[in-house]
Amino acid sequence: MKLHEQKEAYLMLEDGTWYKGIAVGKIGTTSGEICFNTGMTGYQEIYTDPSYYGQIIVNTTSHIGNYGVKEDEQESAGVKFSGLVCRNFSEMFSRKDGDGSLQAYFEKNNIVGISDVDTRELVRYIRSKGTMNAVISSEILDVEKLKEEVKKVPSMKGLELSSRVSTKESYFLGNPDAKYKVAVLDLGVKTNILKNLTDRDCYLKVFPAKTTYAEMKQWSPNGYFISNGPGDPAVTSYAIDTVKNILSENRPMFGICLGHQILAEANGIPTYKMPNGHRGLNHPVKNLISGLSEVTSQNHGFAVDANAVPKDSNVEITHINLNDNTVEGIRLKDKNAFSVQYHPESSPGPHDSRYLFDQFVSNLN
Question: So where's the catalytic machinery, residue-wise (predicted)?
Answer without folding.
Answer: 257, 343, 345
